[in-house]
């Protein structure tokens, strides 16, 4: 049975370049800490880009060996974040046929695929392990979370590059809205810090080459920005209807008030220069939430620190919000986490939820010289405090190669 | 010098433990891989490949279905010349 009830967030989990859980990651975001570092691995020395934002806590420190051996690194991150989110939500009692999972990935089990290929070349087919395919398939992380929780309402993996994690939250909300599930565990994961994806992104000139100063490399909206810094990790939320949450006495963190999804049909990898598709996504999310531009207090921008992308998004935001833009506090948490690709939309939705819940916006670090084409109020320094009273609404933007645009409208719940 | 039954058992138990988390002490000669240790076919093939590496033997795919118990595997590896 479909529902028009508010869909709310009751559990949060993440493992990021800033911390192995939500509390540590959030504290680091507020402190303006960078997760970027020089890659010490031998292979990095031959690459034009030698910096990244690796997970702060290696899964090897958290998961026992048998779990690690059966999961790609992206699946390991997803399982860690899902366990945290599920526990945080109070491990809801829900029939397995009413529990869904939507865990996205941008690239899938790329490190498993490539190391299995190395094994094939070096040692022959016999040494390619039978778990190779279940580990490399992009739906592997979603399936392992589904197995862990016994989810039988449906297990899904949207793939839309860097918008994947946000699309997962949208898909999860739709599952509840349409009556397919009562509780859905949703988010995104990515583990692509490997020479091949880095070489590929570097070939597109998408990555910062500020190898000497990794902590200053991710600098959204700054004149000196020269590309994003690749990050890894996962973010997972638990969604359910407000009445379902209240009936079991769960703590409600925020409402997923609306989700806007559009496509550019402009170019396979470049954003529409005026951000028309991005603007439509934001409008749809606000319409969906029954909100107007004046209601928007905060935006966690996609802003990856690329020269073109940041400008296009800034133009799209002003096109949607008009004069109300001046009253919106923006931030790009990618300045600290780097770009988590398929996990970005989920991790940043969690950052947005926490910003509303604590009424505090984390800063955008490294913004020293604002781009002349960006007319936005961006939180810097120690971040910004949001109004202590009243309902607040925020947007989380996520855009992906392929022209995917997702805006998630998140609102405080009284 | 050929490895003893105890040495092969200990080595195999380590491989099983690393793949499945089953304590090495539970990997005894009379235990069935499927019925007692609950090892699925994917894990079994991983264990076989790792055992080939560790003991320097070949365990043909056709032979794997005959390795019902840990003792069967230990005996096969011993016969195969480990």
Name the features.
heterodimer; A: 414 residues; alpha/beta; Peroxisomal Thiolase, Chain A, domain 1; 2 domains; 11-stranded mixed beta sheet; two-stranded antiparallel sheet; 33% helix; 19% strand; B: mainly alpha
Give a description of the structure.
Chain A is of the alpha/beta class and 414 residues long. Chain A folds into 2 domains: 7-247, Peroxisomal Thiolase, Chain A, domain 1; 255-411, 3-Layer(aba) Sandwich (Peroxisomal Thiolase, Chain A, domain 1). Chain A has 13 helices and 15 strands. In chain A, the strands form 3 sheets. Chain A has an 11-stranded mixed β-sheet with strand order 5-4-6-7-1-8-15-14-9-10-12, sandwiched between helices. The longest helix of chain A has 16 residues, at 73-88. Chain A starts with 6 loop residues before the first strand and ends with a strand. The model of chain A has no long low-confidence stretch (mean pLDDT 97). Chain B is mainly alpha-helical and 82 residues long. Helices cover 55% and strands 0% of the residues of chain B. Chain B contains 4 helices and no strands. Chain B has helices at residues 5-20, 41-55, 61-64, 70-79. The interface between A and B is small, with 11 and 11 residues.
Write the layout of secondary structure elements.
The complex is a heterodimer of chains A (414) and B (82).
Chain A: E1 7-15, H1 22-31, E2 37-38, E3 51-52, H2 65-70, H3 73-88, E4 99-105, H4 110-123, H5 132-136, H6 140-149, E5 154-156, H7 164-177, E6 183-190, H8 195-203, E7 233-241, H9 242-247, E8 254-263, H10 276-288, E9 296-300, H11 307-321, E10 329-331, H12 334-337, H13 344-358, E11 360-361, E12 377-378, E13 384-385, E14 393-400, E15 404-411
Chain B: H1 5-20, H2 41-55, H3 61-64, H4 70-79
Helix pairs in contact in B: 1-2, 1-4
The CATH homologous superfamily of the largest domain in chain A is named: Thiolase/Chalcone synthase
- Helix content bin of chain B: 40-55%
Which chain pair shows the most residues in contact? A-B, 11 and 11 residues
How large is the share of residues in beta strands of chain B? under 5%
What's the architecture of the largest domain in chain A, going by CATH? Answer: 3-Layer(aba) Sandwich
**How far is the N terminus from the C terminus of chain B?**
9 Å
Taking the alpha carbons of the first and last residues of chain A, their distance comes to 26 Å
Strand residues, percent of chain A:
15-25%
Structural class of chain B: mainly alpha
What oligomeric arrangement do these chains adopt? heterodimer
The number of helices of chain B is 4
Examine the coordinates and then state which fold CATH places here, giving the name of the CATH topology of the largest domain in chain A.
Peroxisomal Thiolase, Chain A, domain 1
The number of helical runs of chain A is 13
Helix/strand class of chain A? alpha/beta
CATH class of the largest domain in chain A: Alpha Beta
- Domain module tally of chain A: 2
Instruction: Give the integer mean of the pLDDT values of chain A.
Output: 97
Main sheet specs of chain A = 11 strands, mixed
| Model regions low in confidence, pLDDT < 50 over at least 5 residues of chain B | none
